[in-house]
């Protein structure tokens, strides 16, 4: 592996972990706050038990998210110093605002975690709401930096120089809304299904069902809504990519030949040498319609891009198929939940709970796949059409060792967090609530 | 707006050193305490730092973000040539953070607590050493730029500059400062019978700070580094350090009469004076390389960037600082009220 690939692997690896921690840290406070609100309203002990159990989860994920985020703020420079040298000032605004939002979250979390029986109840609840809102806000803000890499704006690039820098225009770059919406919904869908799934498994196992059903019902609502809205946001994103990053669109659809009335491939095996896609299901004209809202629109194929400007096709295409496929499964699960609200007997069937337990990891797998689509699909550029990833990487050799170290660290970290959560649930199961 | 940005740069640097430093120091204190004190230190640290411990460590993110936005070319040199010590700092920050939260939020308290404790203490010791080393390297003058010496090997470019007596002593000096801060901060929080223990530790830390500070200067002097020579001939720097030393007397007095606020103020001021001396004499040329000096100011971003950053920082500051103060105040009040009951 050369230095560039090692740096890319390290970035991918750390982001893949950070994204999980960050999403849970963003969404779980909402569950916690709702449970807390219900406790204040009803004074039913299961809500208090659940709130306190979830707050520990929030604390653990907030911290792992915070430290992996701190690591990333350094890694951006450590791995891509030349990117940061030029892009840093341009996209500084979302980062500094994210820093502020994150700080507010940390302060509010301080109040929340340590405020039990110490500060007024309503103010205590409010600090919980602030944790959630500022968490989501920092997520939305930081996505602006990524969307800028896809839709660079707010500067003029003349003779290799970045001039006329306008940080506000860069911050409000045209891809931001589509990406932030898609990412936020994904965070809610993934976290909600994961949390609901874990509690569903406990119900399936018949452990402390009162608390776990309460938990499931709070979490799944968010997941169901997000999963049903996500396809709309996905469609919006696809049209945005079609317009702004035609090479990425062509790669994620494995579309080599420029044509009018382009077909959509579902599945398929990509041969990057022969430019053939075999074993696919072909839907005539669907790609043209999805990308441009017109069955006969022309979709530019990869063959029309110079070889050095094409992203890796197979990875992008497979990741996209996985994302869409898993997203569809989540929609189905959302439908099952909504129907079960009418058909109450479904919830008496153990298989209902097993089904949701199996769905637990699906949201996060879809989210990771989507992240791969957008990042690998942007290659070979780090700033779309402006700077290549290979020109941004650190001159320091030996990045492979740094990569190994991070893999080691993050694997240990993930195992510990999972183990801690398991212990948390074990304790929850032995808590008497009535 | 440049001054607003500089203000926040300095503010986040100072606050990280004072607050983050005291956090690290607490871990080191714990490490060098006998079993009978370990538990009580752990408890005191948790009750004091608990609500703000995460906030304390966000200052370094703020600092890094300001540096890369406002002083990109300056930051570029730091991040390329100090890759290895900074990676080790990161490793330490990560382990410290997770160990702190694991040991307090693990639902089951069993033998793994020992593991968390060791992890916490070790990372608290190592992180400030590498942080200090990073700082020392910038001023030591052994950094070689790739464009000036394209044939230099890996060791010469990425290891040699920080693996020198001056940066290493700076690292140890900084961690001793952290212990000093932590011990003096904690005196105010301790129960009577523990106060003596913290006072003793603060005393030892003071001694170590003085010894290591001298050792650092001697190392710099022997290596003939420009920074040390300037330091020793600069009246402001010498004055600041002397004043810092003289403040030990009022510090000791205020501990004696139990005025916690004064005691913290003096300890904080002492460290700030040392930082002022270290940064002030060579400002704005805060990186010294073999082929010349690199100025913070000359490498700043265009004015439009500085203005927007300045405004963002003011807005952020207005939102955060009252909240943070309120957080500190609330828990202080609660603690006082509880003690009264």
Automatic annotation (TrEMBL), chain A:
<keyword id="KW-0249">Electron transport</keyword>
<keyword id="KW-0349">Heme</keyword>
<feature type="transmembrane region" description="Helical">
    <location>
        <begin position="12"/>
        <end position="37"/>
    </location>
</feature>
<comment type="similarity">
    <text>Belongs to the cytochrome ubiquinol oxidase subunit 1 family.</text>
</comment>
<dbReference type="InterPro" id="IPR002585">
    <property type="entry name" value="Cyt-d_ubiquinol_oxidase_su_1"/>
</dbReference>
<dbReference type="GO" id="GO:0009055">
    <property type="term" value="F:electron transfer activity"/>
</dbReference>
<feature type="transmembrane region" description="Helical">
    <location>
        <begin position="318"/>
        <end position="340"/>
    </location>
</feature>
<dbReference type="GO" id="GO:0005886">
    <property type="term" value="C:plasma membrane"/>
</dbReference>
<keyword id="KW-1133">Transmembrane helix</keyword>
<dbReference type="GO" id="GO:0020037">
    <property type="term" value="F:heme binding"/>
</dbReference>
<feature type="transmembrane region" description="Helical">
    <location>
        <begin position="125"/>
        <end position="149"/>
    </location>
</feature>
<dbReference type="GO" id="GO:0070069">
    <property type="term" value="C:cytochrome complex"/>
</dbReference>
<keyword id="KW-0479">Metal-binding</keyword>
<feature type="transmembrane region" description="Helical">
    <location>
        <begin position="176"/>
        <end position="198"/>
    </location>
</feature>
<keyword id="KW-0812">Transmembrane</keyword>
<feature type="transmembrane region" description="Helical">
    <location>
        <begin position="86"/>
        <end position="113"/>
    </location>
</feature>
<dbReference type="Pfam" id="PF01654">
    <property type="entry name" value="Cyt_bd_oxida_I"/>
</dbReference>
<dbReference type="GO" id="GO:0016682">
    <property type="term" value="F:oxidoreductase activity, acting on diphenols and related substances as donors, oxygen as acceptor"/>
</dbReference>
<keyword id="KW-0472">Membrane</keyword>
<dbReference type="GO" id="GO:0046872">
    <property type="term" value="F:metal ion binding"/>
</dbReference>
<keyword id="KW-0813">Transport</keyword>
<dbReference type="GO" id="GO:0019646">
    <property type="term" value="P:aerobic electron transport chain"/>
</dbReference>
Automatic annotation (TrEMBL), chain B:
<dbReference type="GO" id="GO:0070069">
    <property type="term" value="C:cytochrome complex"/>
</dbReference>
<keyword id="KW-1133">Transmembrane helix</keyword>
<dbReference type="GO" id="GO:0019646">
    <property type="term" value="P:aerobic electron transport chain"/>
</dbReference>
<feature type="transmembrane region" description="Helical">
    <location>
        <begin position="304"/>
        <end position="328"/>
    </location>
</feature>
<keyword id="KW-0472">Membrane</keyword>
<feature type="transmembrane region" description="Helical">
    <location>
        <begin position="77"/>
        <end position="102"/>
    </location>
</feature>
<dbReference type="GO" id="GO:0009055">
    <property type="term" value="F:electron transfer activity"/>
</dbReference>
<feature type="transmembrane region" description="Helical">
    <location>
        <begin position="166"/>
        <end position="190"/>
    </location>
</feature>
<dbReference type="Pfam" id="PF02322">
    <property type="entry name" value="Cyt_bd_oxida_II"/>
</dbReference>
<dbReference type="InterPro" id="IPR003317">
    <property type="entry name" value="Cyt-d_oxidase_su2"/>
</dbReference>
<dbReference type="GO" id="GO:0005886">
    <property type="term" value="C:plasma membrane"/>
</dbReference>
<protein>
    <submittedName>
        <fullName>Cytochrome BD ubiquinol oxidase subunit II</fullName>
    </submittedName>
</protein>
<feature type="transmembrane region" description="Helical">
    <location>
        <begin position="235"/>
        <end position="252"/>
    </location>
</feature>
<dbReference type="GO" id="GO:0016682">
    <property type="term" value="F:oxidoreductase activity, acting on diphenols and related substances as donors, oxygen as acceptor"/>
</dbReference>
<feature type="transmembrane region" description="Helical">
    <location>
        <begin position="6"/>
        <end position="32"/>
    </location>
</feature>
<keyword id="KW-0812">Transmembrane</keyword>
<feature type="transmembrane region" description="Helical">
    <location>
        <begin position="122"/>
        <end position="146"/>
    </location>
</feature>
<feature type="transmembrane region" description="Helical">
    <location>
        <begin position="264"/>
        <end position="284"/>
    </location>
</feature>
<feature type="transmembrane region" description="Helical">
    <location>
        <begin position="44"/>
        <end position="71"/>
    </location>
</feature>
<feature type="transmembrane region" description="Helical">
    <location>
        <begin position="202"/>
        <end position="223"/>
    </location>
</feature>
<comment type="similarity">
    <text>Belongs to the cytochrome ubiquinol oxidase subunit 2 family.</text>
</comment>
<keyword id="KW-1003">Cell membrane</keyword>
């Amino acid at each position: 592996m050369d230095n560039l690939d090692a740096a890319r692997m390290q970035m991918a690896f750390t982001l893949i972990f950070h994204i999980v921690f960050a999403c849970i840290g963003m969404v779980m406070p909402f569950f916690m706050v709702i449970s807390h609100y219900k406790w204040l309203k009803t004074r039913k002990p299961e809500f208090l038990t659940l709130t306190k159990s979830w707050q520990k989860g929030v604390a653990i994920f907030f911290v792992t998210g915070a430290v992996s985020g701190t690591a990333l703020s350094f890694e951006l420079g450590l791995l891509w110093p030349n990117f940061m040298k030029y892009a840093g000032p341009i996209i500084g605004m979302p980062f500094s605002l994210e820093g502020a939002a994150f700080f507010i979250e940390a302060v509010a979390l301080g109040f929340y975690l340590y405020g039990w029986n110490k500060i007024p109840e309503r103010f205590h609840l409010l600090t919980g709401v602030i944790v959630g809102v500022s968490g989501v806000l920092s997520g939305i803000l930081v996505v602006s930096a990524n969307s800028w890499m896809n839709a660079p704006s707010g500067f003029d690039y003349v003779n290799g120089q970045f001039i006329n820098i306008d940080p506000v225009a860069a911050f409000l770059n045209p891809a931001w809304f589509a990406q932030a919406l898609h990412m936020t919904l994904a965070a809610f869908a993934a976290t909600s299904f994961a949390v609901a799934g874990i509690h569903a498994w406990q119900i399936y196992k018949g452990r402390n069902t009162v608390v776990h059903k309460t938990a499931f019902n709070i979490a799944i609502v968010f997941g169901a809504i997000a999963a049903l809205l996500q396809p709309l946001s996905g469609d919006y994103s696809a049209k945005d990519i079609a317009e702004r990053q035609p090479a990425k669109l062509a790669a994620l659809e494995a579309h080599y030949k420029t044509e009018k009335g382009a077909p959509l491939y579902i599945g398929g095996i990509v041969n990057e040498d022969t430019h053939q896609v075999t074993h696919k299901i072909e839907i005539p004209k669907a790609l043209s319609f999805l990308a441009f809202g017109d069955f006969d629109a022309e979709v530019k194929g990869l063959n029309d891009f110079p070889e050095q400007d094409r992203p890796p096709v197979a990875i992008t295409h497979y990741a996209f198929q996985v994302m869409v496929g898993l997203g569809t499964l989540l929609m189905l699960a959302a439908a099952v939940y909504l129907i079960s609200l009418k058909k109450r007997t479904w919830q008496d069937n153990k298989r209902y709970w097993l089904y949701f337990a199996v769905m637990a990891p699906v949201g996060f797998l879809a989210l990771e796949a989507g992240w791969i689509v957008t990042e690998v699909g942007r290659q070979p550029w780090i700033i779309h059409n402006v700077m290549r990833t290979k020109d941004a990487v650190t001159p320091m050799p030996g990045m492979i060792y740094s990569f190994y170290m991070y893999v080691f660290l993050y694997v240990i970290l993930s195992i510990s967090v999972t183990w801690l959560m398991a212990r948390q649930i074990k304790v929850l199961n032995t808590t008497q609530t009535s | 707006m440049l001054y607003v940005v500089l203000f926040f740069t300095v503010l986040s640097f100072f606050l990280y050193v004072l607050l983050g430093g005291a956090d690290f120091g607490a871990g080191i204190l714990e490490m060098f305490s006998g079993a009978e004190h370990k538990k009580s230190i752990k408890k005191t640290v948790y009750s004091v730092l608990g609500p703000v411990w995460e906030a304390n460590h966000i200052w370094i993110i703020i600092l890094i973000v300001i540096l890369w936005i406002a002083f990109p070319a300056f930051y570029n040199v730091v991040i390329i040539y100090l890759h290895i010590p900074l990676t080790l700092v990161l490793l330490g920050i990560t382990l410290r953070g997770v160990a702190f939260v694991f040991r307090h939020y693990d639902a089951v308290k069993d033998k793994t607590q020992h593991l968390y404790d060791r992890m916490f203490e070790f990372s608290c010791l190592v992180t400030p050493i590498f942080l200090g080393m990073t700082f020392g390297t910038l001023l030591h003058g052994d950094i070689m730029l790739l464009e000036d010496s394209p044939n230099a090997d890996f060791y010469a470019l990425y290891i040699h500059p920080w693996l020198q007596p001056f940066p290493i002593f700076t690292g140890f000096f900084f961690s001793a400062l952290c212990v000093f801060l932590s011990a003096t901060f904690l005196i105010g929080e301790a129960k009577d019978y523990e106060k003596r223990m913290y006072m003793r530790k603060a005393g030892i830390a003071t001694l170590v700070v003085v010894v290591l500070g001298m050792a650092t200067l001697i190392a710099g002097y022997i290596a003939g580094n420009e920074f040390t020579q300037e330091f020793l001939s600069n009246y402001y720097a010498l004055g600041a350090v002397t004043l810092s030393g003289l403040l030990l007397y009022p510090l000791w007095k205020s501990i004696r009469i139990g005025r916690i606020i004064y005691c913290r103020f003096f300890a904080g001021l002492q460290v700030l004076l040392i930082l002022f001396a270290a940064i002030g004499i060579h400002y704005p040329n805060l990186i010294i390389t073999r082929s010349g000096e690199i100025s913070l100011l000359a490498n700043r971003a265009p004015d439009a960037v500085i203005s927007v950053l300045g405004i963002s920082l003011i807005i952020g500051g207005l939102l955060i600082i009252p909240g943070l103060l309120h957080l500190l105040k609330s828990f202080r009040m609660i603690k006082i009220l509880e003690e009264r009951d």
